[in-house]
Amino acid sequence: MEFVFLPLIIVLFQWRNFESAEWGFTAFYLVYAVLLVTNSEIPTNSRIGSFYLGIPSAAYVTFIFPELYTRYSERAMRVLSVIGLLVAFVALISIF
Length: 96
Hints:
The mean pLDDT is 89. The two termini are 17 Å apart. 18% of the residues are buried. This protein has one domain. With 96 residues, the chain is an all-alpha fold. It is built from four helices and no strands. The longest helix has 22 residues, at 74-95.
């Protein structure tokens, strides 16, 4: 589960380009990652792992680099990223 911290490597290279929205989302992702690692009640199933690890990681990368998806607008990609992380966060909180 420590792989959840892997997308935070982006901060080392892009921190000068961050605005307040990126810093806020990074803080929210960091809180999520710490809660995920400290919670030991999560079952170790590949589907559960992809939900708690894959979706939030992809949401973080998509929020930081919304221009990678040229089919949709940047605002739409950021909203979908927030929704993805928020759903995983609520599911994680409901385990407690």
